[in-house]
Amino acid sequence: MLPKEDLLKGIENQDVLTRVLDRADQAIKTWEIVMTDFLSPPELAEAQRIFSRLTEVHIASWGGYPQAERQRLAIARSELPLNSTQVEIAALEIVGNFLFDSATHRDFLGALLGTGIVRDKVGDIIVLGERGAQAITVPELAEFLELHLTQVRSVPVHTRRIDSTALKVREPKKKELTTVEASLRLDAIASAGFGMSRNKMADMINAGDVRVNWKEITSASHPVKSNDLIAIRGKGRVEVGEIALTKKDRYRVQLTRFI
User: Residue 173: phi, psi to the nearest 5?
Assistant: First the structure.
């Protein structure tokens, strides 16, 4: 049995990670590859931190396409080969005429959950505008959703399973920028990256709306470093690149904003 109490110290999503560690115990006991449900980015980051401390098991993650936000883990004993192709997912196409009644990500998610399934069984949803959407789920629910997902908002839809290679994934838009700051405080770097005032950014940090490497940070003075990822719900992400000291002892920071 894994030392769950020690592994979960300082973990934000303890309920979810407890279930993940239960699956890891199962993998150790049965010598089988086991799957978790879909994890959100913060949950995935915490899982990866925990498993980096373990030698008994290893993991692979996949959500249907490389930049998927929600991903499942495959967990196996360290002696067994494991890669992302062994993570089981299903891709679904939800087709309807949304020209006169457009639907959002929330609408498609609501329709999926309205069939009686839980959020953890659903990965990313790719909205295709007037044509409908594509959704990623656990494979065991694909046939159920083909039968029961028949309407989104007022629009009748046809749901069918497709190959994951048919997912219409749009590459995220990127914007490269450079800022020069007196310090590497989170409020200074994030305000430059997201193009908002430092006071507003400090308020968002204090309110718990800002995550660094998917961990909630509530201190505006939190220091950032190269390769940190700063995320704000609904506003995208900023990746911290190279940091250099100027002749005037200020910090020149390369940033990449993903929209």
Answer: -75, 140
How far apart are alpha carbons 72 and 190 in whole angstroms?
A: 29
- Domain containing 94 equals 90-166
Domain limit, last residue, from 116, 132, 166: 166
pLDDT per position as a tens digit, 13-56: 999 999 999 999 999 999 999 999 999 999 999 999 999 999 99
User: Are both 81 and 14 inside the same structural domain?
Assistant: yes
Residues 81, 97 within the same domain: no
39, 16 Cβ separation under 8 angstroms: yes
pLDDT tens readout for residues 196-231: 999 999 999 999 999 999 888 999 999 999 999 999
Helices (H), the chain: 4-7, 14-30, 41-51, 105-114, 142-148, 186-194, 198-206
Same domain, yes or no, for 178 and 254?
yes
Question: Angle CA(91)–CA(167)–CA(96) in degrees, nearest 5?
Answer: 80
Q: What is the CATH number of the domain that holds 113?
A: 3.30.70.330
74 with 27, same domain? yes
Contact residues for 143 (Cβ-Cβ < 8 A; gap 6+):
161
DSSP string, 93-160: EEE---SSS---HHHHHHHHHHTT--GGGEEEEEE-GGGEEEEEE-GGGHHHHHHH--EETTEE-EEE
Q: How many domains does the chain have?
A: 3
Q: What is the model's pTM?
A: 0.83
Nearest alpha carbon to residue 224 among 209, 215, 216, 212: 212
